[in-house]
């Protein structure tokens, strides 16, 4: 494929309700969309960086800068045999995985269209529907939290994840477990604890959780290994895993029993598939995490989740959980059985609503091949 142009847009979307984690509250998403053109086809990607440098060092602003000044000049006008080559072209750029992943994803969309395949099939995916879990942010009260859990279980979701932080942890877990004894339950700490909190975190062993996600520092593997040795509850690593080398180190050090793969965090499909393949070889379950994506990012998460190692319900939920109106059609829907049916049309499988995107766009920039 010859990459003829890239268009980068910032769209602003209001969440239906504020989403709170241990590092803050999100009400409005500033989302970057990548539109690539090659060989007469158009592909779409979404850059999943947050508004502030809290989940990771990347932000909406840094991603715009990196795409504008480094990624676009390296990619536009190039001819590549396959989208997988993009990762090598962008390798000189250290870090900035989310910026690179958004561009790479758009080119995978184009390649799938060229070959008449769904994006999942192009990746080697096998599932025709994927199991869905739901992520519930910190709530103002226990009754509110329990009401949210009941609502989501009623919608069919197969697994519930609740956010925790020091001072809001064991009490929340106990209440949910007592109220819903059979629910598949996990917690996400978003790096809010220290190794010195191990004895406190061990109290969570009493509530037969699926996992505790990223309890310690965002860039740590070694201390997670020490923590996992003290817990019965499986540790899942998220923020610590940026590539297959990190995953290999975590597995060999026994720092975790589960790994969350986020497309943006690891830099795109090429690296995500490498992490997936390693985990499958080592019998480490993986699942797809979410970043409050709009429809384009949500569609890419669905494609990633079709890979055979994604054996646990991910955070890929319905569009209507977050948005009054999404930017794709059809919108992502969850069945009463808590699954999403994988689209069967070539490429991403969803149509981007240009009218909606244009209405929400606050800035754009275009690069064309000479």
Care to describe what's here?
This protein has 13 helices and 15 strands. By secondary structure, the chain is of the alpha/beta class. It folds into 2 domains: 3-117 and 352-368, Enolase-like, domain 1 (2-Layer Sandwich), CATH 3.30.390.10; 121-341, Alpha-Beta Barrel (TIM Barrel). The chain has a 7-stranded parallel beta sheet with strand order 5-6-7-8-9-10-11. A 4-stranded antiparallel beta sheet has the order 3-2-1-15, with helices on both faces. A two-stranded antiparallel ribbon has the order 4-13. A hairpin with a 2-residue loop joins strand 2 and strand 3 (41-47). Helix 5 (142-154) packs across helix 6 (170-179). The longest helix is centred in the first third of the chain and has 18 residues, at 97-114. It is globular, with a radius of gyration of 20 Å. The mean pLDDT is 96.
Proportion of helical residues:
25-40%
Sketch the major β-sheet: 7 strands, parallel
Text of the CATH class of the largest domain = Alpha Beta
Report mean pLDDT, rounded to a whole number.
Answer: 96
Overall form = globular
Give the structural class.
alpha/beta
């Amino acid at each position: 494929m010859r990459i003829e142009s890239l268009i980068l847009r910032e769209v602003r979307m209001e969440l239906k309700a504020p989403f709170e984690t241990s590092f803050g509250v999100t009400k409005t998403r500033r989302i970057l969309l990548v539109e690539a053109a090659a060989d007469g086809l158009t592909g779409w990607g979404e850059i999943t960086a947050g508004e502030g440098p809290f989940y990771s060092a990347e932000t909406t602003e840094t991603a715009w800068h990196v795409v504008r000044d480094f990624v676009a000049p390296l990619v536009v006008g190039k001819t590549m045999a396959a989208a997988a080559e993009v990762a090598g072209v962008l390798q000189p750029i250290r870090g900035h995985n989310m910026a690179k992943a958004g561009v790479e994803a758009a080119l995978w969309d184009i390649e799938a269209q060229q070959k008449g395949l769904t994006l999942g099939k192009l990746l080697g995916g096998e599932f025709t529907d994927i199991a869905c879990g739901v992520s519930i942010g910190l709530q103002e009260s226990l009754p509110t939290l329990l009401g949210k859990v009941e609502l989501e279980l009623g919608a069919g979701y197969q697994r519930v994840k609740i956010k925790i932080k020091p001072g809001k942890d064991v009490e929340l877990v106990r209440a949910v477990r007592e109220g819903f004894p059979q629910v598949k339950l996990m917690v996400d700490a978003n790096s809010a604890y220290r190794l010195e909190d191990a004895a406190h975190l061990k109290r969570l062993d009493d509530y037969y959780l699926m996992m505790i996600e990223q309890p310690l520092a965002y860039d740590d593997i070694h201390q997670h290994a020490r923590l996992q040795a003290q817990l019965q509850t499986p540790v899942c690593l998220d923020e610590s895993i940026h590539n297959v080398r990190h995953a290999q180190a975590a597995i060999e050090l026994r720092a975790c029993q589960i790994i969350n793969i986020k497309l943006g965090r690891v830099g795109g499909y090429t690296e995500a598939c490498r992490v997936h393949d390693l985990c499958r070889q080592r019998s480490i379950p993986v699942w797809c995490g979410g970043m409050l994506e709009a429809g384009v990012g949500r569609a890419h998460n669905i494609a990633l989740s079709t890979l055979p190692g994604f054996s646990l319900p991910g955070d890929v939920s319905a569009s209507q959980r977050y948005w009054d109106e999404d930017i794709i059609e059809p919108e992502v829907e969850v069945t009463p059985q808590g699954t999403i049916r994988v689209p069967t049309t070539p490429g991403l499988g969803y149509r981007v609503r240009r009218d909606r995107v244009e209405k929400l766009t606050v800035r754009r920039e275009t690069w064309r091949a000479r």
